[in-house]
Amino acid sequence: NPPVKFLTTRAKLSRTLAVASVYLALIAILSLLLVSFVPSLIQQVMSINVHFENIVEGISRFFEQPLFIFGFSIDLMDVYKEVSGTLQNIISPLASRTVSFLIGLASGFAWLIFVLIVSFYLLKDLGKLGRSLDELVPADYREEVRWLGREINVIWSAFFRSQLVLCAVVGTLVGVTTWAVGVRNALILGIMAGVLEIIPNVGPTIAAIPAVLIAYFQGSTHLPISNSWFALLVIGLYVVIQQMENNILVPRIIGRSLNLHP
Fold first, then answer.
1. Computed from CA positions of residues 228, 234, 238, 243, in that sequence, does the dihedral angle turn out positive or negative?
2. What angle do CA 256, 260, 262 make, to 5 degrees?
3. Of 164, 173, 242, 235, nearest to 204 (Cα)?
4. CA proximity to 170, closest of 231, 248, 232
5. Domain range list for the chain
6. How open is the CA angle 120-133-122, to the nearest 5 degrees?
7. CA 105, 50, 235, 67 torsion: positive or negative?
């Protein structure tokens, strides 16, 4: 709505033309993103399928070897037998879900088009809708309800905008840093981190798990270090990004937009 207001007040466009202009710009940006990133995204999903058996085999070998701690040997076979069935049931179907992923991607894009169409008409007739709702409120309370509605709109709009910016920044940081150190499928990991950023605290941890597994069982594409050290490096990167988010990004992006004290 802010771009529409800008075009109607500054550029003196009609509301219909302003909404149409905003949506044309949005469609152009989405088309550019699709052309730029979707082929690479599909390629990386296929790459995960290619390397999937190696990851599962590496997990199996890890549990088959005894674990030595302070000179004591711990047999992990019992643990492996307990978790192997669950692990196969959870992870194995992922290797055959590429087609389902692509279908889901197309379905999500169709829903996006539907939402854009509905929101187009909502933006176009927002004034009429507001006046209709205003008439439902008793006259004595209309001014208070209008003020409350404006405050809610300002606060929630600021929160959602700042949350989207935070997701984009964190996703970009994860994607760039994992690509820089040589983690395979960095684009998918960045998108996953950005999407899961919506879930406080738990989301970043879930996003880090596949990155650490890929680092441990596949290693780096260009750093000359062992897989174990590389996995620790990736864990460190995620911890640093998480601390940066909590102490710098959230106070600056969300805190400032909502006028909250750090």
1. positive
2. 85
3. 242
4. 248
5. 1-63+96-136, 142-262
6. 0
7. positive
Burial class (CB in 10 A: 0-12, 13-18, 19+), 189: buried
Instruction: Read off the amino acid at residue 257.
Output: S
- pLDDT digits (tens), the chain, 262 positions: 677 777 777 777 777 787 788 878 877 887 777 676 667 666 666 666 556 656 666 666 666 666 666 666 666 666 556 655 665 555 555 555 555 655 666 676 677 777 777 777 777 776 677 777 777 778 787 788 888 877 887 888 788 888 889 999 999 999 999 999 999 888 888 888 988 888 877 888 888 988 888 888 788 888 888 888 999 999 999 999 999 998 888 888 888 777 776 6
Tokens of residue 226, six digits: 């062992």
Q: What are phi and psi of 69, to 5 degrees?
A: -130, 115
Strand partners, 67: 74
234: amino acid identity, one letter = V
